[in-house]
Amino acid sequence: MRIEIWADVVCPWCYIGKRRLEKAVGGFEHGEDIELVYRSFELDPFAPEVGTESIAQALGRKYGKDEAGTRAMMANVDDLAAAEGLEFDYADATHTRTLNAHRLLHLAKDHGLQHALLEELLASYFSRGESLGDHDVLRAAAAKAGLDAARVDEVLASKEYRDEVMADIAQARAYGASGVPFFVIDGRFGISGAQPTEVFEQALAQAWSSRAAG
Asked: Would residue 55 count as lying in a domain?
């Protein structure tokens, strides 16, 4: 059974939702028969390729808060992440577009390394506050995931996999998803948001029973 997950690499709820889903799959009796596939989504396709403001500044501008209020808002999410075993420290990371990161995730998928690269990108951004608009950061994450350095450079220097990223985004919108994370189980069951682990457990059981019956 396949679970498709639409997510952005700079979305804190996507990281939290990822961990909650993985926990549900890990405890599911048929977990070994479940394939997780990550799909691209850009929360801010109009973000600059090379950023100049921090995430705290960008969110403050978006929500009309001062920096102290924004950091307090982010701290609340940080606490929820900590409950899932995640350490967040990204308020000072640079706000940039994530298209190149998503293109590399498609490259990684072709080589069976998508999950490894996604984990490296998430850790780079959320735990170390590195900019995912920086090609050196992307190269370092790709190297840790096991991708060929020359191939990574080829992709970064081109528009390769851009169409695949746009196709993922179009599919999400066709499903009616306007935000992420968004999960589609077995092509039939949709879940929006970083739901509690128990919700994912119930959805997995329902989808598996439906599959067995159908």
From this structure: no
pLDDT tens, 4-45?
999 999 999 999 999 999 999 999 999 999 999 999 999 999
Tokens coding 111 = 């080589």
The reported pTM is: 0.95
Relative orientation angle of helices 12-26 and 67-83, to the nearest 10 degrees? 10
Does residue 199 sit within a domain? yes
Contact in structure between 196 and 20 (CB atoms under 8 Å) = yes
Q: Strand 35-40 vs strand 2-7: parallel, antiparallel, or unpaired?
A: parallel
* Residue pLDDT, tens place only, 90-111: 999 999 999 999 999 999 999 9
Q: Which domain does 167 fall in, by range?
A: 2-45+97-213
Beta strands of the chain (E only): which ranges?
Answer: 2-7, 35-40, 182-185, 189-192
What is the domain-level CATH number for residue 7? 3.40.30.10
For the chain, what is the domain count? Answer: 1
